[in-house]
Amino acid sequence: MTADEAGISDVKGISEPARAGGPGRAAGGDPTPVGWLLAPASWVLRAVALGLLAVLGVQMYRTSPNVGMDNDFVVRAARTFLDGGAPYADKRFLYLPSAVLAAVPEALLSRGQLRMLVLGVGMSAVLAGWWASLRIFKVASGSRLAALGVVGLVFFEPFRNVVNIGNWTLASVVALPLALLCARRARWVTAGLVVGLALAVKPMLVPLLLLFVFARRWRALAVALVVPVVASVLAALMMPRPGMFFTRTLPFLLDGQDAFARPFDASLGMILTRLGVPETLAYGAAAAVAAVGVGCAWLRWRRGERGPRRLAETAAMLMLAAFLVSRPSFDHYLLVVLPPLLASVAVAGSVPRTVWFWVALVPQVSGFAWPHLEAIQRRAFRDAATLWLLAAVTARGCVRRRVVPTVTPVEPGQDRTPVRGAF
User: pTM for the complete prediction?
Assistant: First the structure.
């Protein structure tokens, strides 16, 4: 297997500082905006980023009434299991049996300890996913891009929400970029193991299995499938009435959950039904759009250009296609795909180098009051605007062929005029 077949050789479009293993190491530096982002961040910027995270965490701990709300469903299932009961008696426990065992350590903690744990682990998980995303493109964790990404998270509503409620989507936020990083380094079986472990916790990354199919990495696919199946079967053998997962939980999930979740559902089908489109037509359209999204991902993978951007964009498109049709689709699902996409700004021609990528994120900026959309019953329309536009921008990037310029280092004494069209 050649390095190109492994998807690790073609890094055209990555600025020379990033390719050298860290920002700011190219001779003469990179004068483009991306070169500035890849340069080392000052200690002041790093302190500001960490300080803002700390302030947000303290504020949530002291004032939020919903800290750990989603995590509590899994913890209650684990406590029911420890008491000899059936975890699936609670219709809001929606994960595989293996998640029950994963939550047992939490079930032994007090309410106060869980409150601190949820916030600390939540923030750490997102930061780990951001770090892995940066490393996919060989961007140093001490760069301005890394620090500014952390600052941006503080003002990003999906980040605040997922950290606050402790939803186990956080496992996928870490696992997707980590799996892509492993694949980037030609460690596909390890990537399959990462995805399998994430599926055992919460089966959100099922669409990512198609990436292994596209790449024809059958051993990695087998590992990704076997790990959650074996873990769930072993866990099911240890608990009473595991069959309720099929008779109670799956029908509840396939029905889009209930009135509690539907106001937050930003999936295409649900939003269309709320706009008056007949249900059959709405969900049929959603399925068709999702199929187009998968086709775009396949086209992206089939393109001759290889490298980290290929991995990130194909994976993001697969997940976004699933989010369009899944029931429900919440705002914090965006955090699964955004870190790898955002880190790809280091590569010329990437999705974040289009203005519409940033326009899509505007509805999720904390602090803005959106007319008629602030009520909790209408929040999903804001989330849908972001999800749909981000999916469209990514799809366009997947199917569009463009010549990617290579940024070369500037030798001392040479012309340092910025390269036109580099950003």
Answer: 0.86
Closest Cα partner for 136 from 271, 315, 264, 278?
Answer: 315
222-229 average pLDDT score? 97
Residue pair 297/276 in contact (Cβ under 8 Å)? The answer is no
The amino acid occupying position 346 is A
d(CA 119, CA 66): 11
Euclidean distance between CA atoms 300 and 310, whole angstroms? 7
Query: What tens digit of pLDDT does each residue of 186-203 get?
Result: 999 999 999 999 999 999
Q: What is the pLDDT of residues 229-254, one digit of tens each?
A: 999 999 999 999 988 888 888 887 77
